[in-house]
Design goal:
11% helix, mainly beta, single chain, 30% strand, rod-shaped, 175 residues, 3-stranded antiparallel beta sheet
Length: 175
């Protein structure tokens, strides 16, 4: 007996047949090792692609729930020197109200999806964050073109009982 074809799990390796004698029933243990089915992989990957697409379409330096500029805080404050060598935040020479225009995100690379079973909750699987995604963020700051390389984790968490799944994605998905 296997799992339904639309399950979020598959049995790995296939179960060995177990014989039961109904006249003299006895307890029989079965070692059931589950692994993500193609459905779990595909739906999780689709959610990640959707999340990345929304983030890369943003026209902000720090869109909510997405990667953010490494030079500027969400409010626009300078976190590191401007390319022209303007002093860092804290100096009176820095203008925190710089005009930011033409914000564009572009995904350069994304790690392969690897789902790892949570040792505390065997029904939860998380994306193994062994390698970050990389995006290019470009914008005009007071007329000067700025390009940043932004590395960020692609997190995913899937909790499934087999027939349904709760999938969350983002830089730090809900547990």
């Amino acid at each position: 007996m296997g799992l339904p074809g639309n399950s979020y799990y598959e049995v790995d390796p296939p179960l060995e047949p177990v014989e039961l004698d109904f006249r003299r029933p006895r307890r029989t243990d079965v070692d059931l090792r589950l692994s993500p089915s193609p459905r779990m992989w595909e739906e999780t990957d689709a959610r990640i692609r959707e999340w990345l697409g929304e983030c890369m379409a943003a026209e902000e330096l720090a869109p909510e729930g997405c990667p953010a500029s490494v030079r500027r805080a969400p409010g626009g404050a300078v976190l590191e020197p401007r390319p022209s060598g303007t002093p860092t935040r804290g100096s009176t020479a820095v203008e925190d109200d710089a005009e930011i225009e033409d914000v564009a995100w572009r995904l350069l690379s994304r790690p392969a999806l690897v789902l790892v079973q949570d040792p505390e909750d065997p029904l939860r699987w998380t994306a193994d964050p062994y390698r970050p995604a990389v995006a290019e963020l470009s914008y005009r700051e007071d007329g000067e073109r700025v390009v940043e390389r932004v590395e960020f984790p692609v997190g995913a968490s899937v909790r499934s009982t087999g027939g349904s799944a709760e999938i969350s994605v983002g830089p730090e998905p809900a547990q």
